[in-house]
Give the backbone structure.
Amino acid sequence: MKKTFLAGALSIACLTGGFGLQANAQETVDVASFIHPKQAVAATKQVQSMTYQDLYKTLVIAKLAYEDKEMSVVATKNSITLKLSLQGLLKTNKMTAQEQKEFKELFGEVIQMKFTPSGNTFKAEVYAEGKWQALSDKDLNAFVGSMQEDDFKLKPGGYFTDTIGHWAEGYIQLLFQADIIKGTTSSTFNPNGQVTRGQLASMIFRASGLDVNKDYEGPATYKDLAKYPGAKEVAILEEYGLIDIFDGAKFEPYKPVTREEMAYVTASYLEAMEYDVSKVSKNNPFTDKNKMRKETVEAIGLLKQLGVVDGTNGQFNPKGNLTRAQFSKILTLTLMLVGDDE
């Protein structure tokens, strides 16, 4: 009999709930007044403790809270350029008409900043009053603080050189910080590599907040897991009914997962996390649904209606595979749904 899944991963899901600017209007209008979200802490302490790599990780995660037209982060191995629009700031920063006018006089419609490595940390510039100017420690501290949650500390590592500038870098970084994904090496992620069944199981397992020491009750029914390192994770997910789509005698952990298999497992995870799917249509609009396994049609429709998955030219390509970058986005959006629901 299948277990009832307990929502043990809400803390992971809710990790996606922050990272936006939380600024408050200030009386004195300067750079800090637009980006300072809370009481100032010692500027030198915060600025000096953050490396260029940590700044990169902070910015690409924060970017997830904004539309592309509101905030952009262009990163290379040697610099980071940030653009944050007034429209984006107004989402969380209460400004009077006068303050908005003064913002435009200083920065135009968009505040622009440049960050470059400098020793163990970085230097910052802001484009104001028609020229690039060094950003003061006070202003830099205010900006860095605005991009971080009070109770959130970046993990070491995760500066993947092959995701710098990648469209999915924010999703990848967020899942790395939540201990859901790992790199292929300490400095690479292989974003275009295909997701295997075993990798899918491992990421869903970690996102579920399950524990192999507490939740394992016996081996899976699959006959090919004796030497597979993630065998216990697979067994636990099978017990909870999250991977029923893999209904053969073998699990084949190193086989690339198909898009419809991924959708079924992801939708099962949503339901297991007690997300109320009854309020969402499961209408599947894809023109190739006749190529889908019967049990995946509603799962794919559900994720499409929730905005978690999409297709190309009206087709989902259910038998196709997906990349590690693509699934990073899908899983992040799924976690955000759970976090918002909570």
Q: What stands out?
A: Residues 178-341 form one domain. Confidence is low (pLDDT under 50) at residues 1-30, 35-45.
